[in-house]
Design brief:
Elements (H helix, E strand, L loop, with lengths): L7 H9 L12 H8 L9 E2 L10 E2 L10 E5 L5 E5 L8 E13 H8 L2 H6 L1 E2 L9 H4 L2 E5 L7 E2 L5 E6 L4 E6 L10 E2 L14 H8 L17 H18 L1
Parallel strand pairs: 8-11
Antiparallel strand pairs: 1-2, 3-4, 5-7, 5-10, 6-7, 9-10
Helix pairs in contact: 1-2
């Protein structure tokens, strides 16, 4: 079924102009409409001459089928990965993931939830000239389908991704030949990023006012049994590898 969009932003502004604003006290309805409008903006729209039963001048391009050559796996140590389900040549397509664009903006979401776990998983759209006050509100958040939220980030990644804003699809490609059952990883947006959105620990702390622990950083007051705990964790990882 083909989704249709017509004058969405205008309708959004009309709705928020209603007299009953009890659920948004202190919020300017027009500003809210501008801030959320990116969720309804499509990269392009096409004539629907091939759909005579659709009484709309334009329709959103929709991809019917999405290719996937990877699968999600739970590791015995509680971590997760995505691995290839077949041999993939360098430059070959790993997976296509459709995504939804949310009205929510990243900075607003983090201010409200202060969610450290979500920060490591969230995907966002790149800001552009049409993104209303991106520096203040942050980019639009998206929810990708498929395995997109499960690809682990690595500085020595074997895959990369591209955003298709026309069909709202994330495509993952192999940087080099990938063997069947090999774990697939993608590069972080930057060395300081803690998730695919690109947000850093410092930015998270500035937005939320909450201190996020830095992996590997020493705790205040020192640690009396760190060596013992590290040895126990190593034994557990070794046992986990033996059972795989």
């Amino acid at each position: 079924m083909t989704d249709t969009v017509e004058n969405t932003v205008e309708k959004s502004e009309e709705i928020t102009d209603a007299k009953d604003t009890s659920t948004q006290e202190g919020v300017d309805p027009r500003e809210w409409a501008r801030k959320t409008s990116g969720a309804y903006r499509y990269g392009t729209m096409v004539d629907n001459t091939h759909l005579p039963n659709v009484n709309r001048p334009k329709v959103v391009p929709v991809k019917e089928l999405f290719e996937c050559n990877s699968e999600y796996i739970n590791n015995i140590d509680g971590s997760f990965d995505v691995r290839a389900t077949k041999d993939i040549e360098g430059g070959g397509l790993i997976e296509e993931c459709h995504y939804w664009v949310l009205e929510s903006r990243l900075n607003d979401f983090l201010k409200g939830t202060k969610d450290k776990v979500a920060t490591r998983l969230l995907w966002t759209l790149p800001c552009d000239d049409n993104t209303h006050k991106c520096e203040e509100f942050g980019p639009h958040m998206i929810i990708p389908r498929g395995n997109a939220m499960s690809y682990r980030m690595s500085e020595s990644s074997n895959a990369y991704f591209e955003m298709d804003t026309v069909t709202r699809t994330i495509r993952f490609f192999a940087l080099r030949p990938i063997s069947e059952n090999e774990v697939i990883t993608i590069a972080p947006p930057s060395l300081e990023a803690i998730g695919p959105s690109g947000i850093t620990i410092e930015e998270f702390q500035n937005i939320t006012g909450i201190v996020m622990a830095v992996p590997g950083a020493a705790k205040p007051g020192g640690c009396t049994n760190c060596s013992q705990k590290a040895a126990e964790r190593k034994k557990f990882r070794d046992r986990s590898k033996e059972t795989q």
